[in-house]
Design a protein that fits this description.
Chain lengths: 161, 252
Amino acid sequence: MLSKEQITSLLSAIPDPEIPVINIKELGVLRDVVVNGNEVEIIITPTYSGCPAMKQIEDDIISSLERNGIENVKVKMVYHPAWTTDWITDEAKEKLRKYGIAPPEKTTADKGALMGKKRALECPRCGSKNTVMISQFGSTACKALFQCSDCKEPFDYFKCI
Amino acid sequence: MTKQEALFNYCLRLADTSLILAQRNAEWCGHGPFLEEDLALTNLSLDLIGQANSIYQYAAQVEGKARNEDDLAYHRSEREFLNTLIAEQSNGDYAKTILRQFFCDTFDFYFYAELVKSKDETLSAIAEKSIKEITYHLRHTSSWVERLGDGTEESHTRMQDALNEIWRFTGEMFEMNEVDTILIKEGIAVDLNSIKSKWESKSKEILDRATIKIPANAFMQRGSREAKHTEHLGFILAEMQSLPRALPDAKW
Ligand SMILES: [Zn+2]
């Protein structure tokens, strides 16, 4: 049987189905790995209640472990503590930015940006802070839509919750 | 009524309301007034379906009769649904859809903030998750109620018409029965009297800003706590349940 650390490292290779540049560990969806004899329980939490990627993530976890000879797997979904974008690692935030998605600010700093007030978001393409929000709802539940007034490109902002 | 029966009923009330409202909003998919609003409403629907899904899962567990969340959503009929009447009202124009959602969001905002304190750990955890999403919803719909109400002559008239039409469905959201009595005693349910004045003052604040007036006729329609619905619900279910009922053993 693999150890908790080995399993965690295996599962860290699973990308988020919608944003494949970051994995489920650095996104904060993978919460815990519990090894009990030859049984493994994987604890995950959804980013949003209705996130359609969760089923895919569950399937990916099971098949990843099966490929490594672990058959007895339970995936458990927990809601508490509720997922927050503050769990996304700094390294992952940088990956998001390079991918063209403005990373979430700290939840405490986010309110102003989404209320269309003061604190301007930085365009992930040209770095300009001259940006405006187009919609609080973007291409997926976790993103809002912004546009850069300098390079004119629209971009997704990974909104904080 | 036992505590278990009350809890099952309570879960259905919450999940059915989220699901039916989500189904209504989803009717706008591909028909929104413009792309961003189309996306906003469908995203909002998705959150509501997610909330319904987790509550149905818990309801199934509480019931303990080997039904699952899909059975509860797709294989119950009209007289078993406990969603609020406001959730099933027709979409009408965008003003009506937004106003309906605003009233429900305002209710949910105060309701789920209280439900976080529930002694039932599952409901508390689901509420903790949901409140973050609801906060976004309320921000969105309240800004649209204001913008349309205090907008052009046309949008103002439509928003006022919408209010005249759906105001009478807002009263029963706060109705309590034996289910509430049992669960409040257990520290599980939210005392709806405790959030009613907050709902009223938030609604009034936004309606004032939108320059629209609450109708003078104070009649309130009721019935959903006894699963008595308006003519709309049967049609919603017929459409929503047709596939799982035609192919009950289908696997995706
Ligand atoms: Zn730019």
